[in-house]
């Protein structure tokens, strides 16, 4: 699995919003506190808004906030929402692979890898990360 910069930045942004919840956080503050390029942060927050993870408010007192409680947002949902399936082989999900001969069982390994990644990432919420309860 490759964790994209977009997914990493998105989880970092969501964690900052979770830490400040229910307050609204300006993009500038988020960019400075998480050392993210501001334009990139704006794009990611817009994507997260479209996916239903954040809400936005316009105006002088505007910014972003979580659309749901931090305990209701699993990291796996965020990663899949932004990057698609967790495991692909040449852009094909493991369940759609078939090989012949000696490699015929290899798709089962890729499916197991996908399953385990889903278990880990879907089992950790933003709240878990804020509390340091990863793997506990």
Automatic annotation (TrEMBL):
It comes from Cellulomonas algicola. This is Rrf2 family transcriptional regulator. InterPro entries: Tscrpt_reg_Rrf2, WH-like_DNA-bd_sf, WH_DNA-bd_sf. Keywords: DNA-binding. GO terms for molecular function: DNA binding; DNA-binding transcription factor activity. The keyword DNA-binding applies. It comes from the Bacteria. NCBIfam families: rrf2_super (TIGR00738). GO terms for cellular component: cytosol.
